Amino acid sequence: MATTKWAIDSTHSEIGFKVKHMMFTNVSGNFSDYEANISTEDDNFENANIEFSANIDSINTNNTDRDNHLKSGDFFDAENFPKLTFKATSFTKNGDDYELTGDLSLRGVTKTVTLPTEFSGLMKDPWGNTKAGLNISGKINRKEWGLNWNSALETGGVLVGEDVKLNIELQLIKL
């Protein structure tokens, strides 16, 4: 069977995340500079080969000071670890949806994560291109990758939550 290569359609995709701020509201952010190598053996994406990387310097939370802090040694340490990477080890059906498992590397630490994934199927766009949709969610604990910085609040609790919720919307285009 022929291998199909896919690219991320960046105009219709978002690599997003949310983190609790002051324990009661979420701050959202995304990475705007990323790349992926994706290949499949069939149209249902089972056992897809997925490799992804994002440039830490492209982090955007709509606040320059916060973005600079996230790039610093307190968090991602972009100077020494300029990319986050993900390499899938499996993409398997789980009921109506899928599970994407792979190795996530941040700040020089690699851990295996499993992320619930919704596969939206295939569709032709008005220009005849075949597109596929993936919505990847889940959460990780940032401290497992050494992103430990925090600040105690007078009222108790901490400034930055440990759990990072992922919200990754991918529209892929068949090459």
UniProtKB/TrEMBL annotation:
Gene3D superfamilies: Lipid/polyisoprenoid-binding, YceI-like. Residues 5-173 form the Lipid/polyisoprenoid-binding YceI-like domain. Signal peptide: none annotated. It comes from the Bacteria. PANTHER family: PROTEIN YCEI. This is Lipid/polyisoprenoid-binding YceI-like domain-containing protein.
